[in-house]
Design goal:
The complex is a heterodimer.
Chain A: E1 3-4, E2 15-17, E3 23-25, E4 52-53, H1 60-74, H2 82-108, H3 112-119
Helix pairs in contact in A: 1-2
Chain B: H1 9-12, E1 24-32, E2 39-47, E3 51-56, H2 65-74, E4 91-92, E5 96-100, H3 109-115, H4 127-138, E6 143-148, E7 155-161, E8 166-171, H5 178-183, E9 186-192, H6 194-205, H7 213-231, E10 240-246, E11 259-266, E12 276-277, E13 284-286, E14 300-309, E15 312-321, H8 329-333, E16 336-337, H9 346-353, H10 363-394
Helix pairs in contact in B: 2-10, 6-7
The chains are: A mainly alpha, B alpha/beta.
Transit peptide (chain A): 1-53
Main location (chain A): plastid
GO molecular function, one term (chain A): nickel cation binding
Chain lengths: 131, 395
């Protein structure tokens, strides 16, 4: 898996084609930048910088699938170990995120204009007239 | 001389203040009288009060049905912050801000893997920062809150949160840290039984490629020790607990479609009067199905009784089964008291308004709506009480 240097900011919103030949939109731009303005924080926190994995092909569904396989492999030996529990916790978190992404796509109706107009109702493109 | 005051909702949320006091804002108005050219200074103090509500739940942070019902009762739809991080977990409406406590993870996903801990473990959460920021918001001070990105598993740049009228902190640990617990004006624990949790996660996850019954079960079982150690004990501190259990109306039911929901309400909580059915403090068992309420199998059954919960006196209101027709809910509502409704039928109206929400035909929707009304009532009582206290202090 390719890694990207810390601090490099990539925001991407692309359409991926999954193995079922369905276009899958990411829930939103994926911000990979993990640096922020430390001066604005109210407390000092030691942040260990580490490489960031690139946005995977296929969106979050593939990430869920990978994490399930990884959890099953990690837990094959010792199902009550810390590694095993943390692995399944990741599955749970990613499954919830995937569920939210599905709900959001369903609610938005996959219409980019509606999504844009929700955030920018005052623009010319989004004006509607009752008469 | 009467002076009219015009200010927008945004002004009420402003953090700008003219005095050192952080709990009040002062607006200077100038009025020119037509007869004379003298100007009068009128001083009006607008008090910005924030109440803090804690909601403990296993998952579904920030986007849950409960949050949407709650913010609907308070007025306005809650939405992610405009122009902000699209992966933000925060929801904001005119009166309410919902903060996801996952944003106070001290370890991101990769840190947790390295440390071999789950997100439920207190070692993966920064309770010092959580306490400082919730306290600041309660005192009317804006904060730069971190954002935990559930998609990438990393901590994103922070977002600015303005103090709202009602602040809801939702997540795994709203009542875990004693300092945070003491900041809460009201707290709720969603207690989902293992059977219902399993059924709901099947419904959620079987649509996802890679998941199976085995993986869902393994995921729940792996998290259970940490859940029992760090999450479940919080329910002893909750002012209200919503217990979701399988129905007892269908023998040996294992589908999880029909639910029995119990609303456990603590007695003696300030500004909170428990809801009751028929007579306060009595013991009621009621099957409302008949001419006024249409029911199909397995029907509906209500229970109401005083009880003890973790050595605390409580009132328990229970609904088993589901409604066939939501408009007939008014009949049930008319037999409940202390609902804190502003008009007859407000509960039914709220339920009909969100008939498409999950759980609208069972006790989860009904009790979530009722809790929303109680929180609104608590907010109004608290504001009125503080206004009275300030008036007395001036005298």
């Amino acid at each position: 898996m390719a890694t990207i240097a810390t601090g490099l900011n990539i925001a991407t919103q692309r359409v991926f084609v999954t193995s079922e030949n369905r276009p899958v939109c990411l829930a939103g731009p994926v911000h990979l930048n993990n640096s922020w303005n430390l001066g604005s924080r109210t407390t000092n926190r030691m942040m260990k910088l580490q490489p960031i994995k690139a946005a995977p092909e296929g969106g979050i569904s593939d990430v869920v699938e990978k994490s399930i396989k990884e959890a099953q492999e990690t837990c094959a030996g010792d199902p009550v170990s810390g590694e095993c529990v943390a692995a399944w916790d990741e599955v749970e978190e990613l499954s919830a995120a995937a569920s939210h992404a599905r709900d959001k796509k369903k609610a938005d109706g996959s219409d980019p204009l509606e999504e844009y107009c929700k955030d920018n109702p005052e623009t010319n493109e989004c004006r509607t007239y009752d008469n | 001389m009467a002076v009219s005051t015009i200010y927008s909702t945004q002004a009420l949320n402003s953090t700008h203040f003219l005095t050192s006091s952080s709990s009040s804002k002062q607006v200077f108005l100038y009025r020119r009288q037509p007869q004379t050219n003298r100007r009068f200074n009128t001083l009006i103090t607008c008090a910005q009060e924030t109440i803090v509500i804690g909601l403990a739940a296993d998952s579904g942070c920030g986007k849950s049905t409960f949050m949407r019902r709650l913010t609907s009762v308070f007025g306005g739809a809650a939405k992610p912050p405009k122009g902000g991080n699209p992966d933000s977990n925060t929801l904001i409406s005119d009166t309410t801000t919902v903060i996801c406590l996952d944003d106070y993870h001290s370890l991101d996903r990769y840190g947790r893997k390295e440390q071999k801990v789950t997100a439920l473990d207190p070692r993966a959460n920064d309770f010092d920062l959580m306490y400082e920021q919730v306290k600041a918001l309660k005192n009317g001070i804006a904060v730069e809150k971190p954002i935990y990105n559930h998609v990438t598993g990393l901590l994103d740049p922070p977002e600015l949160i303005q103090p709202p009228k009602i602040l809801v902190i939702e997540g795994l640990h709203p009542m875990f840290d004693e300092r945070v617990r003491d900041l809460l004006d009201f707290s709720i624990y969603l207690d989902i039984s293992n059977e219902v949790k399993f059924a709901w996660k099947i419904q959620r996850d079987m649509a996802e490629r890679g998941h199976s019954l085995e993986s869902i079960k393994a995921s729940i079982e792996a998290r259970k020790p940490d859940f029992d150690a760090f999450i479940d004990p919080q329910k002893q501190y909750a002012d209200a607990v919503i217990e979701v259990l399988p129905t007892t109306l269908i023998p040996d039911d294992n589908e999880g479609k029909v639910l029995r929901v119990r609303l456990i309400m603590k007695e003696g909580v300030k500004y909170f009067s428990p809801v009751y059915l028929f007579d306060e403090g009595s013991t009621i068992s009621w099957i409302p199905c008949g001419r006024k309420l249409t029911c199909s199998y397995p029907g509906i059954k209500f229970n109401y009784e005083p009880d003890s919960y973790f050595d605390h006196e409580v009132s328990v209101l229970e609904m088993d089964g589901q409604f066939d027709r939501l408009d007939e809910l008014i009949y049930v509502e008319s037999h409940l008291s202390n609902l804190s409704t502003k008009f007859y039928g407000e509960v039914t109206q709220q339920m009909l308004k969100h008939a498409d929400f999950p759980g609208s035909n069972n006790g989860t929707g009904l009790f979530q709506t009722i809790v929303g009304l109680k929180i609104r009532d608590l907010y109004e009582q608290l504001i009125a009480n503080k206004a009275t206290a300030r008036a007395e202090a001036k005298a």
